[in-house]
Amino acid sequence: MESGQSQSQNTKASTVSTSEDKSIAAESKKSKDEDLIFVTNERVEFDLQDLLRASAEVLGSGSFGSTYKAMVLTGPVVVVKRFKHMNKVGKKEFVDHMKRLGGLSHPNLLPLVAFYYGKDEKLLMHDFAENGSLASHLHGKHGCDLDWPTRLKIIKGVARGLAYLYREFPDEKLPHGHLKSSNVVLDHSFEPRLTEYGLVAVTDSKHAQQFMVGFKSPEASQNEGPGEKSDVWCLGILILELLTGKFPANYLRHGKGATEDLAMWVEAIVREGWSGEVLDKSIGGSRDKEGEMMKLMRIGMSCCEWSLENRFGWREAVAKIEELKEMDSVVEVGVESLNSDLSM
Q1: How many C-beta atoms surround the C-beta of residue 299 within 10 A?
Q2: Backbone angle region of 44, left / alpha / beta, with phi > 0 → left and psi within -120 to 50 → alpha
Q3: Which residues 6+ apart lie within 8 Å of 311 measured at CB?
Q4: How many whole angstroms separate alpha carbon 229 and alpha carbon 231?
Q5: What is the pLDDT of residue 188?
Q6: Which of the ends of the chain has fewer CB neighbours closer than 10 A, N or C?
Q7: How many CB atoms lie within 10 A of CB 60?
Q8: 192 with 184: CB under 8 angstroms?
Q9: Start-to-end CA span in the chain (Å)
């Protein structure tokens, strides 16, 4: 979920937040056991009432609930996300799953700090990422263009974080499930951190199918349900978005036809002619970088293959991304080579 909303939007969201605070506070009084549960002993702990009294800034609101930055007096700045569609499992299963997520540790995952279980709402608390979301840089007025070395650093970090999730959840069809640019945040050095990962197991099935991007892959639209390569499809879309600067607006749609529209968006990029013109102008590319950019474009398209047989697996996608360099080893490797490969 993105920052940088207008003042009027923030005011409206703050009013909603106050109402939600009261509902959570009232719910928490029903049981003395219902409080924030910290998943690590390395953090300064505080209780739910401290969090509700904290100064807060609304960052955004989406299909899953609202997100805000909280400044707790006794602790660091944190990001709190409210979820209203997490009643797929009971309290014990939810707590166990959150503790499992809390045990994950990787440089490219935004770690879960604490959570709250309520009958109607759940709260997940994370560290605050100083540079906001990738989406805010690509599409918002963040005031900072991302050059090629930074974008390459970001996509490599995203791939590494996704690979870690695949290794940690080998039996899950969607280890991430909701991989998109607004769920990639950037720290002070523009190192990417994945957010909203591993939540398919606790999210209401109907809501997940309607809104989570992992369910917008071609296989999911064919009543087969998402599979082990559906997160790879999302990675491919993210790659194309990163390179072109074009927002896949179809992610905002749901219901019949959403996946077909998204596929048309991907195909439209191919119809651009695979020239350097398709690249985001703010990358600031030169001839000595275009070859590597087009290699990444090719990887993105291989991740978006409709055919599961032809689509990259996560290991192959990560390996190909890791091979990319900031500068072309041979300047001539570029659009012509890519067009040649596609015509084979």
Answers
A1: 25
A2: beta
A3: 229, 232, 233, 302, 303, 304, 305
A4: 6
A5: 92
A6: C
A7: 20
A8: yes
A9: 40
325, 292 contact by CB (below 8 A): yes
Burial 222-255 (b: 16+ CB within 10 A, else e): eeeebbbbbbbbbbbbbbbbbbbbbebebbeebe
pLDDT tens string 198-213: 999 999 999 999 889 9
3-state secondary structure of 187: coil
* Cβ(138)–Cβ(279) below 8 Å: no
Q: What is the pLDDT of residue 318?
A: 98
Q: Which residue has the higher pLDDT, 51 or 108?
A: 108
| Coil vs helix vs strand at 66 | strand
Q: How many residues does the chain have?
A: 344
The Cα–Cα gap between 24 and 52 comes to 9
Q: For residues 257 and 338, is the Cβ–Cβ distance under 8 A?
A: no
Q: Please name the helix (run of DSSP H) or strand (run of DSSP E) that holds residue 294, with its range, or none.
A: helix 287-303
DSSP 86: -
Are the CB atoms for 120 and 28 separated by under 8 Å? no
Do β-strands 55-62 and 65-71 pair in parallel, antiparallel, or remain unpaired? antiparallel
pLDDT for 53-88, tens place per residue? Answer: 877 888 887 778 888 888 887 777 889 999 989 999
Amino acid, single-letter form, for residue 307 = S
**Which tokens in the block code for residue 45?**
């702990």
Quote the CA–CA distance of 157 and 115 in Å, as a whole number: 25
